[in-house]
Amino acid sequence: MQKNKVLFQIKNLEKKVARYLLNDEEFSKSCKNFSKPSPTQLQIIDYLLKNMDRVVYQRELEELFTLKRATVSGVLKTMEKNGLIFRMVDEKDTRAKKILLNDSTKAIFLQAKKKVDDLEKILVQGLSKEEIDTFQVVLEKMERNLTEENNKK
């Protein structure tokens, strides 16, 4: 695989970002009671933290992260087993389960948010606002292209 291929570069950056977060000593110490979360689990935790003021369901995560039901179900099952989340039957719809972070997960990951903010600063260091805006537009177009292609199948 050539290094100048877009997909390779995206995957490589994703791995480096995940390693940066998951290999942080302070973060690892605070997660000693948990298995280290995967990048997908980190995304789910981040989303749940940002939406603590409302109910989040599995279907929403499937759509947001463009993952299949079985994939999200497996990830949530692992997160529940590892004590990161718990699921609760919705009072209004007993077929649906609310996804909630447990208190210790909230505390650990709110503390880790500073690490994520620091990483964001590192990633955009030396980039102009125009470069960041252009990058975001390009990423959105790539995502849209892939979504359209998946919808054809």
Please explain how this structure is put together:
The protein is mainly alpha-helical and 153 residues long. It has a single domain, classed as Orthogonal Bundle (Arc Repressor Mutant, subunit A), CATH 1.10.10.10. The chain has seven helices and two strands. It has helices at 6-22, 25-30, 39-50, 58-64, 69-81, 103-124, 129-152, and strands spanning 85-89, 97-101. Strands 1-2 form a two-stranded antiparallel ribbon. A hairpin with a 7-residue loop joins β1 (85-89) and β2. α4 crosses α5 (69-81). The longest helix is centred in the last third of the chain and has 24 residues, at 129-152. It is globular, with a radius of gyration of 17 Å. The two termini are 26 Å apart.
Give short descriptive properties of this protein:
single chain, 153 residues, mainly alpha, Arc Repressor Mutant, subunit A, 7 helices, 7% strand
Summarize this, please?
The chain contains 7 helices and 2 strands. By secondary structure, the protein is mainly α.
Number of domains: 1
Beta-strand share of residues: 5-15%
Shape: globular
Task: State the oligomer.
Answer: single chain
Structural class: mainly alpha
Ordered list of secondary-structure elements with their pairings:
Elements: H1 6-22, H2 25-30, H3 39-50, H4 58-64, H5 69-81, E1 85-89, E2 97-101, H6 103-124, H7 129-152
Antiparallel strand pairs: 1-2
